[in-house]
Design brief:
By secondary structure, the protein is mainly α. The chain has a single domain, classed as Topoisomerase I, Chain A, domain 4, CATH 1.10.132. About 70% of the residues lie in helices and about 0% in strands. The protein has 6 helices and no strands. α3 crosses α4. The protein is globular and about 45 Å long. The relative contact order is 0.17.
Length: about 110
């Protein structure tokens, strides 16, 4: 029962992380209207930042990569925004105690 509770807590934290870090994309993700990725350098940098500052992507959290895709595709016309997005990921991870404890558990 504890393992189930831990998994549900983990999933809730992951869901909330993406929804609060990228709120402008929540509707597109919910409606499954995120464009296909084309800026793979940006996508890789978002994933690397998340895995470095938060925790590794795993089976459940991989479904939220579409938030990264939406962010990358949305800022194609303003590439300088990538640094701001990377900072937002880092700040959200540092502010989330659960993410910090999950990172320590995985490392």
């Amino acid at each position: 029962m504890k393992a189930l509770q831990d998994e549900l807590k983990f999933r809730t934290e992951i869901d909330n992380f993406f929804k609060t870090t990228f709120p402008t994309h929540a509707e597109a993700v919910a409606k499954d209207s995120v464009p296909n990725p084309t800026d793979f350098d940006c996508l890789r940098s978002m994933i690397d930042q998340y895995e470095d500052k938060c925790t590794k992507l795993e089976d459940y959290s991989l479904k939220w990569v579409k938030y990264f895709v939406a962010e990358c595709e949305g800022m194609k016309s303003f590439p300088a925004a990538r640094e701001e997005s990377l900072k937002r990921i880092e700040q959200s991870c540092q502010a989330n105690e659960y993410m910090q404890s999950a990172k320590k558990t995985i490392i």
